User: What shape does this take?
Amino acid sequence: MQPVSAGPKLEIQMLHDRVLVRLSPEEGERRSSGGIVIPATAQVARRLAWGDVLGVGNSVRNVKTGDRVLFNPEDQLEVEIQGEGHLVMRERDIHAVATERTEHGTGLYL
Assistant: This one.
């Protein structure tokens, strides 16, 4: 029996206006600003999520690799890369960017 060859490693390059995001790990239960513990199973409303940008297409203008972005994870496409789940989305589906580069910021920080 021949061993299975993994073959050459292929680099993933995003196309057009697509962004590859790794979903930030869930924190489990959260604590409100008043100190109330909110269990991880509590469903308040549709919740936006933060993720880390791993790659961007050549038509993406406002997001760079390494930025943290805010988006709706329910509206995105999921892909598994090296056994880990990632999301692919269009730049227009991103609601906010957390970055060290400040041009038109809100004055709020993570």
Summary: The chain has a mean pLDDT of 79. DSSP finds no helices and eight strands in the chain. The two ends are 53 Å apart (CA to CA).
